């Protein structure tokens, strides 16, 4: 039973949302992602 619950929770995480960003917002998020990607390695 628990394994089935875990698999359904994983399916919920697959949602994707389209977000419209201004150029400034996109640049800010790109910088944040670059910093996070570098720190995780």
Outline the structure in words.
The chain has about 40 residues and is mainly α. Helix content is about 70%, strand content about 0%. The chain has two helices and no strands. It has helices at about 1-10, 25-40. It starts with a helix and ends with a helix. The model has no long low-confidence stretch (mean pLDDT about 75).
Please provide the ordered H/E string of secondary-structure elements. HH
Proportion in helices:
55-70%
Structurally, the number of domains stands at 1
Give the mean pLDDT.
77
Total number of beta strands: 0
* Unreliable runs: none
Largest sheet: none
Task: Report how far apart the termini are.
Answer: 35 Å
Helix segment tally? 2
Helical/strand content category: mainly alpha
**Using only CA atoms, what is the Rg?**
16 Å
The shape, in one word, is: flat
Percent strand: under 5%
In short:
With 41 residues, the protein is mainly α.
Features:
mainly alpha, 41 residues, 68% helix, 2 helices, flat
Secondary-structure blueprint of this entry?
Elements: H1 2-12, H2 23-39
């Amino acid at each position: 039973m628990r394994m089935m619950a875990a698999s359904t929770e994983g399916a919920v995480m697959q949602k994707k949302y389209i977000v419209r960003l201004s150029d400034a917002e996109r640049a800010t998020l790109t910088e944040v992602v670059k910093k996070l990607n570098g720190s995780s390695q």
